[in-house]
Amino acid sequence: MNFDEFYMQQALDIAWQFQGLTYPNPSVGAVVTLDGKILSIEAHQKSGTSHAEVLALLKAYEILSNTTIDFDSFDSKKAHQFLLNIPPKFFSECTIYVTLEPCSHEGKTPSCASLLQSLNLDRVVIGTKDPIDGHGGGIDIVGRAVLTPRITVGILEEECKALLEPFMIWQKRAFVLFKLAQTSNARIGGGYLSSKASLTHVHQLREVCDTLFIGGNTVRVDKPTLDCRFIEAKAPDIKIYSREDDFDRDIPLFKVECRDVEVVDSLDFLDKPSFVLVEGGEGMLVALKDRIDWLLIYQTPKLSTNNLTYNTTMNLQFLHQAKKDVDLMIWSRQIGN
What is the pLDDT of residues 78-112, one digit of tens each? Predict the structure, then answer.
């Protein structure tokens, strides 16, 4: 692995920490270096807030100037304005690595490509071009800087494209993410298996998804609440997959305020662009097998005698893994069976 690949991998690793949480935006990571030294590693964290490049540049500014900014770095408009007002050659010897071509358009946040054009960095290294029609052009804008930066495109490109896959899918239809928690001998059930860090991460995904999709048996047997209490956020809207609507409306699931709970017997809603998080057992995994895009596995370092497991056959490609406290968290893609 060369130096460009090493730094891009750092950007990828931090971007994966926020995979899905940036919905409907893509997950993006950025690294700023000077003379081979990493100054900052940052990622876009939530839609409507500062992008990865901006957060990385702000942190690099603090390191180089030995000062602390006095405003919210996630306020994109204030962040852009601040960076545009620093001395024009402040970053002229720096390199920025970013997993995705800097955005050329202005939406909830200003254009990162225009910002980089103004900052006159020495190098801009990009993992992959923006794949959405009409969203490209960022490379051309950056290249119009007064002090033209050296631009390199295609570093760890396949890995950067894999990071973008959910974003590409939910442009056209539902991106379906099946979440499962299991012991190290692949047992499920018997109460909470995952660490609090894993459970908190699940609640973060629940907060941003369009729909939390569950099976009827889960409701009948477990009587779950399925809220976001660990992060004190709004509970997700629920769709229950069942042929029979025979559910006890007095259980906690139906008592959570400010959300919709709907019983459906069709998967047609998956044709609509959205982010659908699925939580369920073997029945839901089998029923949705042909519609699942990715699986998110939380594997806890325990062995269990519980008989419940996911008794089915699927071939997976592991995309990224990280730790959530003691748990191993694995992002995986379903591949041809």
Answer: 999 999 999 989 999 999 999 999 998 777 889 99
Distance between CA 95 and CA 81 in Å, rounded? Answer: 20
Tens of pLDDT, residue by residue over 250-259, are: 999 999 999 9
Q: Is the peptide bond before 166 cis (omega within 30 degrees of 0)?
A: no
- Per the DSSP assignment, residues forming a β-bridge with 276 are 176, 211
Return the sign of the alpha-carbon dihedral for residues 334, 46, 174, 246. Answer: positive
Residue 89 and residue 87: Cα distance in Å, rounded? 6
Contact in structure between 241 and 265 (CB atoms under 8 Å)? yes
| C-alpha–C-alpha distance, residues 172 and 148, integer Å | 37
Residues whose CB is less than 8 angstroms from the CB of residue 196 and which lie 6 or more positions away in sequence, other chains included:
230, 325
pTM: 0.94
Tens of pLDDT, residues 137-159: 888 888 887 666 789 999 999 99
CA 142 to chain centroid, in Å, comes to 26
Identify which of 239, 293, 295 has the alpha carbon closest to the alpha carbon of residue 266.
239
Task: Tell the residue number behind the tokens 């001395």, with chain if given.
Answer: 87
As given in the structure block, the two tokens for residue 152 are 């390199």
Contacts of 183 (CB under 8 A, 6+ apart): 193, 299, 300, 302, 303, 304, 306
Angle between helices 76-84 and 52-65 in degrees, nearest 10:
50
Q: What is the 3-state secondary structure (H, E, C) of 249-292?
A: CCCHHHCCCCCCEEEECCCHHHHCCEEEEEECCHHHHHHCCCCC
Structural contact between residues 112 and 142, judged by C-beta atoms closer than 8 angstroms: no
What tokens appear for 38 in the block? Answer: 């990493």
Q: Which of 124, 135, 126, 122 lies closest to 101, judged by CA?
A: 126
